[in-house]
Write a structure and sequence with these properties.
There is one protein chain. It contains 20 helices and 18 strands. The strands form 4 sheets. The chain has a 7-stranded antiparallel beta sheet, sandwiched between helices. A 7-stranded antiparallel beta sheet has the order 12-15-14-13-16-18-17, sandwiched between helices. Strand 2 and strand 3 form a beta hairpin. The chain is globular. The longest helix has 33 residues. The protein has 640 residues and is an alpha+beta fold.
Length: 640
């Protein structure tokens, strides 16, 4: 029973016990004096502050969180002031604890305190009323400022889908004024388990990734290497299982399912990857038709020995990041899929991302509820000798695929995440209604100074080792980044370009890069050059830190890579603007993970950042939000 008690009740136990003790003394007509109440509640406050500070220091030490961010600074200052207060008044506390209640009653202060009690009580009542009134006003705002979508309103395709994307993106954007304009989202309760398991399902333990590092072909050892490097546990620290791919808040919403048809030493069927145990759990035996996974047979070659279905357990991210959840799970998935693509290449397999599939059919086959766990991507695993296909987003329109129809009548209003996932999902052979009205194409920037980058240095890299050792690094040395290092990272970010979307743009903020003045530069991949967009001068670090929610990791880095998406490009996606938005965010994750891998290959430090003030981030790199949206930050520098 104790283990099922809610956390708020555990935290409240000391206060409840103190309140019960005061009530008991009051019933026995032995009430505590104001002096005694002050002493005991000061000590209770000290206990809470010490516990809060200890937990904060613990998580800073174990997760490499920024030790001197604003909320930590206020906490440390509170602890310091309380310690000083206790030090100055310790003799009062000590004497109170030693003397009896009778002696306390005879003290010269007793009469004075008794005379002031009516006045003090009136002040207390007034303060309580004011606090309650403020809480009531805030409570009235709670829920009224949220954006919600009616499941039965219209069709998710065409112009309606683009409007929906614009509404969602605006509502999930951060700004300083937004803190006052909107109340917090509803409390979503405790997060779900970090790992999903199927109790009683037959299991196959995969070989250790290190032992399978150079297996060639699609065998179970090669699959184990690919899956572990995609989402496996690479380190356990402070009670958290850190993975090979980064995730916002170390929450890891991504789940992987494997459909095997011709894998050596693995029975055909549907399997779930248990990342915690590095094992496969069998959910269904026997070969599966591609149609059961929402794929058209004409779109899938006949020689596919296996494929991976990637989902996201929304609540893992939503309980912390609320309205921004769908952004984060898509970018997180992109990070993981880039690891999958690179790892597969290292073991002689080519991973191909599928642009169009029917999520509802795939979810039914997997047995998942899409309101809780959305199917986000399908990856084909092919032998490397097969001819590579053209990038999916460059193909012609797809007449057999259309936006998903609205939910059945009587459905409740959808949460932001559920609504966006439904809008970006596809169905086969549904009549298409309404063409999207795409935003104007991003105007060409005025002629600016161009800085040609040196050719990226040629390197032989053990990418599996780089993935295995990848960590987010938040501490940077006060040294400038070399132009050769920046050239290598930027070149890697565009190799290969546009697997799902060509909407991603790369800007570089350069407070400390040799040979570059402090400013914001747009990367031109075709020319492998930087084009100056804004000159910032000496205040660049301060402005970059401020735009990234005052996070030191961006302000201390030698360079910050800022990813944005071109609105006209993703809105023109052949599968509709909502699907184009999903593709663009996954693509941003793919590009962002290459920052980690390139940094690891060069011995640099990198850290992805998904939280920023959207309007200030756009101003930092000189883009117009009417044409482009900032999606992602990545800090880059020399490790401390």
């Amino acid at each position: 029973m104790l283990g099922t008690m809610p956390k708020w009740l555990w935290v409240s136990i000391p206060v409840l016990l103190a309140t019960a003790g005061i009530a008991w003394l009051q019933l026995r007509r032995r009430p505590l004096s104001r002096h005694a109440m002050n002493v005991w509640f000061s000590m209770l406050l000290l206990g809470y502050v010490l516990t809060t500070a200890s937990l904060g220091v613990f998580w800073v030490a174990n997760q490499q969180l920024p030790a001197f961010d604003w909320h930590y600074l206020f906490g440390y200052a509170t602890l310091l002031l309380l310690a000083l207060h206790l030090g100055f008044n310790f003799h009062i506390v000590w004497h109170h604890l030693r003397r009896t209640r009778a002696a306390s009653a005879r003290s010269p202060d007793a009469a004075l305190v008794a005379g002031r009690r009516p006045f003090i009580g009136a002040l207390g009542l007034l303060g309580t009323a004011a606090a309650s009134g403020l809480a009531f006003v805030l409570g009235l705002r709670h829920g009224r400022t949220e954006l919600r979508f009616d499941a039965t309103a219209g069709v998710a395709g065409g112009a309606a889908a683009l409007t929906m994307v614009e509404d969602f993106h605006a509502f999930s954007s951060h700004s300083r004024a937004g803190v006052l304009r909107r109340a917090p989202s509803a409390d979503l309760g405790d997060p779900p388990p970090a790992f999903k398991r199927y109790a009683g399902a037959p299991r196959v333990t995969l070989p250790p990734a290190a032992a399978a590092a150079r297996v060639n072909g699609l065998q179970i050892a090669a699959l184990g290497t690919v899956l572990w490097h995609t989402a496996g546990v690479s380190e356990r620290r402070g009670g958290i299982a850190l993975r090979t791919a980064p995730s916002a808040g170390a929450l890891f919403a991504t789940e992987l399912y494997l459909v095997a048809s011709a894998v050596d030493r693995l029975a055909a069927g549907l399997w779930h990857y248990d990342a915690d145990a590095n094992a496969l759990e069998n959910l269904r035996s026997g070969a599966l038709e591609v149609g059961a996974l929402g794929l058209r047979a004409d779109d899938v070659p006949g020689d596919i020995p296996a494929l991976v279905v990637a989902t996201a357990v929304f609540a893992r991210t939503a309980h912390k990041y609320r309205d921004r959840t769908y952004r984060y799970v898509l970018v997180d998935l992109g990070h993981a899929l880039e690891n999958l693509r690179v790892a597969a290449e290292q073991v002689g397999v080519r991973a191909e991302l599928v642009a169009r599939f029917d999520e509802a059919r795939a979810a039914a086959t997997l047995g998942v509820d899409q309101s809780q766990e959305g199917v986000l991507e399908v990856v084909l695993l092919r032998r490397q000798q097969a001819a590579p296909p053209a990038p999916a987003h460059r193909g012609s329109a797809a007449p057999a695929w259309h936006a998903a129809a609205a939910a059945a009548a009587g459905s409740a209003a959808l949460s932001l995440t559920e609504a966006m996932h439904q809008a970006s999902s596809l169905r086969a052979a549904v009549p298409k209604t309404g063409a999207p009205t795409t935003p104007a194409t991003t105007p060409a920037p005025p002629p600016t100074r161009t800085h040609a980058l040196p050719p990226p240095p040629a390197m032989r890299v053990d990418w599996l080792q780089v993935i295995a050792k990848r960590r987010s690094r938040r501490r940077f040395a006060r040294r400038a980044l070399s132009l050769e290092d920046l050239s290598f990272v930027l070149a890697q970010m565009q190799q290969p370009a546009g697997l799902l979307s060509s909407a991603v743009r790369i800007d570089v903020v350069t407070p400390a890069v040799h040979g570059l003045e402090p400013g914001a530069w747009r990367y031109d991949a075709a020319a492998h050059a930087l084009r100056l967009r804004l000159q910032h001068g000496d205040g660049l670090r301060r402005r970059a830190r401020a735009a990234a929610l005052d996070q030191d990791v961006i302000g201390d880095a030698a360079a910050a890579l800022v990813l944005s998406i071109d609105r006209a490009t993703f809105a023109a996606d052949a599968s509709g603007p909502a699907r184009g938005y999903r593709h663009a965010l996954i693509e941003a994750g793919l590009v962002g993970e290459r920052v980690y891998l390139a940094a690891g290959a060069r011995g640099l430090a990198a850290c992805a950042v998904g939280a920023f003030y959207d309007d200030e981030a756009a101003a930092l790199v000189g883009i117009d939000p009417a044409h482009e949206w900032v999606i992602h930050f990545a800090a880059l520098g020399v490790p401390a």
